[in-house]
Every structure is written in C-alpha cells, then in structure tokens.
Amino acid sequence: MVVGCNNLKYNEWISKQDPYVCVEYGSYKSRTCVCKDGGKNPTFQEKFVYNVIEGLGELNISIWNKKTFTNDDFIGSGKIQLAKVLSNGYDDSAWPLKSKTGRHAGEVHLTMHYSTANNQETPYEPLAPLYGASSAQYPQDSSYSRDCTPAY
Q: Which parts of the sequence belong to the C2 domain (predicted)?
C-alpha cells in the first residue's frame, strides 16, 4: 500500500503541488490518484496487488506533480527493496527519494504484505489503517472507484 510521502521536494511557486505516485514492478505499472494540494506531505492510502516475479527483488517508485497546462513535473524516485517483505511477510517502512540530480527529494511510506512468506505473522501492527483501492495500470482510461483526480 502506498501510504503517503513526507518532505517532498517542492516544485510549485504559487500554489500547493498536486503529487501522485507511480509504481513499477516488472511489467506491472500502477499509479495513485492525485493528492490535490497535497504539498510536501501528501496522503494516498492506496492498495496495489502484484504477483511476485522470481528474481526481481525491488519496486521502482516515482513521484510526480500533476500540472494542468504543461507536462507533469518529476519530483523524485527510488528503488524499494523487497527482501524484508519476501522473508517476513510484512514491511512498513519509509524509503528515500532522489531528484534527477541525486539530491534528497523526500521519502515515500509503503506498507507491504506478502501472503506466502516464510513467516506469515505480522511482527507489529501497521502504522496506518488498511484501505482497499482500485488496482489498475497507469495511465487509466476508466474513472476511479473513489473521488480523485486522474493524473493524465
């Protein structure tokens, strides 16, 4: 689950930025809804489900700022290591993001579950409640199941 982001690099001059998150795992591609006026600390609470790909131990995450009249602005990206969730069945962590120049661009908070891990017990309670959201490829052609602004 994409819980949210903290201390994102700020790309707006006048208004608050409208961030969204893109997740890539092998050929799977998903994106969150836009967090309108989410600023530096947006909240998403969106769940995506992937089949585990043997030998692929990381997710690629990128954060974008939705623009109305121009191309969306890149905020930052990061690689999410899956070793902990694959072995323990659970990982609730914040991961660093880097800008195009390699500077710190904030962090993304993910809660991940893997149902067939060696240890199926959750070592501790999740920091955020678990919510269901649509799991779809981005960009989406259909409307979202809840009120949110598409990022295209």
A: 1-96
